[in-house]
């Protein structure tokens, strides 16, 4: 329910060929976002257009650099606006409701900036389909680390494949070089189990590990080069740690 001056921002001028001036529309949308009071959600400009002959595709670069998303659906088979769209957000034909809704879901699936989180993504749209990760700037015991993660709706990170192992080392490296870091793996009555309750066969124990005489909790540490390994340790020791959570479902 916009006021009259605010509503004027939605008026799109037309050129001599009766095509909407996409440039004016983007400028108007950016102005609305700039004046918005609620900035906790992702900013999206959705362009639905017939093929156009000319457009300055760099006009939305500043908007995209600030984290905004430009989604473009062209009503034809000729790609005339691929560079205007954000990576992964260019498509043809506005007639697949599932695809269109998926676009809106993906736009709103992102890691918040407070606390600072790092997205783990393996898709073109860079949605955090493999979670959001944060490494608080403290060293503490295993149990306190779990409590710190839980306080923000996270769990201690679980490592189920080598790709994620490498990613976790990158997150830990933001705190310092070759630091031991707790992972959500601990010894219970029935053996080791993950705090996310997932039953995984992946392990990355260092030679001679796990040595239960060293303790019931597990930390990972960079060894040589980009390699890392797991070690059993006393839960009362103080290490850095990594928290993770999944902000949304990108499959629905």
UniProtKB/TrEMBL annotation:
CDD domains: CLECT (cd00037). Pfam families: Lectin_C. Residues 128-244 form the C-type lectin domain. InterPro entries: C-type_lectin-like (IPR001304), C-type_lectin-like/link_sf (IPR016186), CTDL_fold (IPR016187). This is C-type lectin domain-containing protein. The lineage of its organism: Eukaryota, Metazoa, Ecdysozoa, Nematoda, Chromadorea.
């Amino acid at each position: 329910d916009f006021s009259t001056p605010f509503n004027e921002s939605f008026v799109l001028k037309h050129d001599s060929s009766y095509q909407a001036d996409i440039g004016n529309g983007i400028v108007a949308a950016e102005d609305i976002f700039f004046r918005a009071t609620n900035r906790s959600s992702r900013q999206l400009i959705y362009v639905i257009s017939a093929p156009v002959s000319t457009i300055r595709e760099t006009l939305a670069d500043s908007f995209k650099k600030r984290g905004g998303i430009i989604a473009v659906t062209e009503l034809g088979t000729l790609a005339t606006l691929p560079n205007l769209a954000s990576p992964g957000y260019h498509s043809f034909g506005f007639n697949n409701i599932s695809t269109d809704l998926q676009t809106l879901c993906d736009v709103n699936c992102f890691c918040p900036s407070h606390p600072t989180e790092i997205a783990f993504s393996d898709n073109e749209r860079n949605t955090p389909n493999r979670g959001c990760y944060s490494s608080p700037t403290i060293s503490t015991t295993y149990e306190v680390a779990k409590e710190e993660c839980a306080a923000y709706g996270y769990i201690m990170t679980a490592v189920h494949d080598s790709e994620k192992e490498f990613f976790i080392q990158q997150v830990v490296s933001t705190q310092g070089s070759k630091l031991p870091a707790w992972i959500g793996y601990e010894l219970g009555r029935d053996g080791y189990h993950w705090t996310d309750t997932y039953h995984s066969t992946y392990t990355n124990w260092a030679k001679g590990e796990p040595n239960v005489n060293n303790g019931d909790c597990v930390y990972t540490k960079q060894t040589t080069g980009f390699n890392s390994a797991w070690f059993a340790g006393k839960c009362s020791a103080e290490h850095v740690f990594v928290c993770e959570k999944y902000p949304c479902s990108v499959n629905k």
